Amino acid sequence: MSPEKAVLDIQGQFRVYTEFYRTDAAAKTIILVNGSLATTASFAQTLRNLYPTFNVVLYDQPYSGRSKPHNLHGAPLTREEEGQLLLELIDHFNAEHVLSFSWGGAATLVALAHQPKRIESAVISSFSPVINGPMREYLDKGLDYLSAHSRYDMGHLINSTIGKHFHRFSSASTIATSAAWTVMNTTRCTITSVRCWNLIRTTT
């Protein structure tokens, strides 16, 4: 199962690493949207569940994974930019379905708000459009630390919030595997169970 790999130029602004798992057995294509700290590797188990029923597209955001070396990083991407990037990829790969995980849900909802004609269904998993007080504080601090290029403060922020829920002897690979299993279990739901138009209607 070897993908077609490419680095695509998006809007003349971003270069995005993609993996396209194409199969003659599939009539439809699904594109998977990562969370903010994830890469294409995070969807390894999900890929095994979807392929070869679907053609599968994976990609790294411009600030992560194999896309990162191809981009300048002057400012964080906005949700709107991530949404437009996803729309470009949907058109490029002629995708009919979208599955997002975690922060990838924000970009997906932005893209769906444009009502792309090709999309037949979408799944938004492990994402809440509502940001509570503690999460707002976490995001504001994170943005400040990233803007200041303060790796120490950013590391401390993650370790004192998200990190404290992980066992201190857990390896990164164990955490990544757990996340992959979460995504895999989520994708066992019927891919057509969440219609994108209904999704937009219930979240706006």
From TrEMBL:
Gene3D superfamilies: alpha/beta hydrolase (3.40.50.1820). Residues 29-129 form the AB hydrolase-1 domain. PANTHER family: HYDROLASE ALPHA/BETA FOLD FAMILY, PIMELOYL-[ACYL-CARRIER PROTEIN] METHYL ESTER ESTERASE. This is 3-hydroxydecanoyl-ACP:CoA transacylase. It comes from Pseudomonas syringae pv. helianthi. The lineage of its organism: Bacteria, Pseudomonadati, Pseudomonadota, Gammaproteobacteria, Pseudomonadales.
